[in-house]
């Protein structure tokens, strides 16, 4: 019988003040060292290197290193706006964080679509505009088109910022196995941001999901008792029953999931099972994103990644989110197994 003394993530109830939401608008830890030089463009997909080259030009334009006074003045009057379109796992976030790093921490803001909508909810629209208008560049990762209200809100926010001379950069996910779907996703994005559509330059980033090159969902499960032994006594480790954690997530706003992971270095999940409830699945996707941002290894008990999201969920309107979560969680599970092997 294993005596487990490891704390539980389901016991953490974080309080996140508005000023922290602003302070957290920086590239995640996973991409702390990302740069255009460290992006490994696949020569089989020329659009990857073409995007690197174009974003390098944008960074030079925004930092004033691309020309004289009149060129910099023109850049301030017509700030660039770029949209990276492509499947998950092709390095769009790497490229977006590289752009943010190139422009500089003080001059750029970086966050996901959800983080910006949460910021508006915490500060109010006018104060959010005032805070972000001080930046040279605002980056929006994982632009969502699922919620019409949030999409209209973000469109208005981006329009206000662009009118104040702030440069914009955004990414979104399309499905890599659907021929031509990337074009339609780009058209959807441009339609939804309405008045700003003419300002955005769309760059297609083709390629394969680099995490999926070695990832399979079968064989990812670890016996529950082995998960418990692996995390017990480990500094910064948390251990949770999957269903208990899912219930806890329903009582915590997704904007606080990142703060909930403060100090967490390893997460063990026991009794993992296939999900069939859409709300539970979407909340878990957000948690996976925050775990991935922070490079937190995960050990999966129960059935692991096998059939984690139901066939109906995978084939539904949120398919791209679930596939991205499987890709990212698979990568974190590989890191977790490495921790397990090292302790053996």
Query: For this structure, what is the CATH class of the largest domain?
Result: Alpha Beta
Oligomeric organization of the protein chains: single chain
Number of helices: 14
The CATH superfamily of the largest domain is known as P-loop containing nucleotide triphosphate hydrolases
Kindly report the average pLDDT value: 86
Secondary structural class: alpha/beta
The main β sheet shows up as: 5 strands, parallel
Using brief descriptors, characterize the structure shown:
nucleotide-binding; 344 residues; Rossmann fold; globular; cell cycle; 14 helices; 5-stranded parallel beta sheet
Write the layout of secondary structure elements.
Elements: H1 18-23, H2 46-62, H3 69-77, E1 81-87, H4 92-103, E2 108-112, H5 113-123, H6 125-132, E3 137-141, H7 148-163, E4 167-174, H8 181-192, E5 200-204, H9 224-231, E6 237-241, H10 242-249, H11 257-260, E7 266-270, H12 278-293, E8 298-300, H13 311-314, H14 319-343
Parallel strand pairs: 1-4, 1-5, 2-3, 3-4, 6-7, 7-8
Helix pairs in contact: 2-4, 5-6, 12-14
InterPro entries: ATPase_AFG1-like, P-loop_NTPase
Protein name: Cell division protein ZapE
Organism: Sanguibacter inulinus
